[in-house]
Specification:
Blueprint lengths: L6 H21 L8 E6 L6 H14 L4 E5 L7 H5 L7 H6 L4 H4 L1 E2 L5 E4 L8 H5 L2 H13 L2 E5 L8 H6 L4 E7 L5 H13 L4 E7 L9 E6 L4 E2 L1 H9 L13 E6 L4 E2 L6 E2 L12 E2 L4 H10 L6
Parallel strand pairs: 1-5, 1-6, 2-4, 2-5, 6-7
Antiparallel strand pairs: 3-4, 7-13, 8-9, 8-10, 11-12
Helix pairs in contact: 1-2
Length: 302
């Protein structure tokens, strides 16, 4: 008989994973701290909205204020998930019909705020590419510690790439065994063309690894090293000659505890970006290696 899932443990595991993700976002650029973050995916239903909300909550509970912006003007979902609805939103602010303060709504999480988008906004991509939107990004960056833009899938609409061009950082959510390789490659290349600062990739819907926390090692090509084999080899070497890790290999902290994702119905792996990462996250210096892995078929997708 299959064992019942411990949903309490799943929830705690997910919270810890997102906190690790937040910590590594902070490590992503020490000289130029990340403030505005675009969360997108290649195709719909990869869990990007769930990641956006979870990340915003982690920021708020860490003592920083955060503004969560509904930037998917075609398929709004944040308001319903948060249970927050406003009469005016992003378009009204950009058009000058109301102030930012009047449009921003409180949530049930202290220090977490929400800016909705009105329905049926014409030509969203043109609006996001406007000078007014650029000024808006500068304004919210100056008022909040963090700003998270939940955008449409970059492989479906250009909106995410347009926002990513002016935001500090972009996170690409990838649902394991769901998105096709060509879809992921196309999305990543679109972000590259927009000169987006892709700081990492969050793999969602992946199976949890054994144990609540573990360390994984990756070489410079982004290939995972079999730690058990290396430990077995090291144990046969005299202590004076033993090496703590294989030559040319970086130690990277990986959060393996994972929890059910409301967006996917499976396990959600939200792990670090940089400098540590990968349970499903590829840090910045190995993002290119990850994409190469998809080209060669070495990374699991559909």
């Amino acid at each position: 008989m299959p064992r019942k899932r411990n949903h309490r443990n799943d929830e705690v595991a997910l919270q810890n994973a997102v906190k690790t993700l937040l910590a590594n976002i902070r490590f992503a650029s020490v000289d130029e701290p990340v403030s505005s973050i675009v969360v997108t995916s290649s195709v719909p239903n990869e869990g990007k909205t769930t990641v956006s909300i979870s990340l915003a909550k982690a920021i708020a509970t860490s003592g920083r204020d955060v503004l969560l912006v509904e930037a998917d003007m075609r398929r709004r979902s944040l308001g319903g998930k948060l249970g927050v609805h406003s009469r005016q939103g992003l378009y009204a602010v950009l058009a000058g019909d109301c102030s930012l303060e009047a449009a921003v709504a409180d949530t049930d999480v202290p220090d977490m705020y929400f800016l909705d988008a009105e329905p049926n906004i014409p030509n969203p991509a043109d609006i996001l590419a406007s000078h007014r939107f650029r000024r808006f990004v500068k304004e919210v960056n100056s008022r909040y510690d963090y700003v998270i833009f939940d955008t449409p899938p970059v492989g479906t609409f250009v909106d995410a790439a347009v926002i990513a061009a002016v935001a500090d950082a972009t996170i690409l959510v990838v649902r394991e065994r769901y998105v096709k390789r060509n879809e992921l490659l196309g999305a990543f290349e679109q972000l590259q063309k927009a000169e987006a600062n892709v700081i990492g990739t969050v793999v969602n819907g992946c199976e949890p690894a054994s144990g609540d926390y573990y360390y994984a090692y990756y070489n410079d090509n982004g290939e995972r090293v079999d730690v058990k084999s290396e430990q077995a080899m090291t144990s046969r070497v005299p202590a004076a000659k033993a090496s703590p890790r294989p030559a040319g290999v970086r130690a990277q902290s990986v959060h393996g505890a994972q929890a059910p994702s409301p967006a996917t119905g499976g396990a959600a792996g939200v792990a670090p970006t940089a400098p540590a990462g990968r349970s499903g996250v590829i840090p910045p210096d190995t993002t290119a290696a990850m994409i190469s892995g998809f080209r060669s078929g070495g990374v699991r997708t559909e």
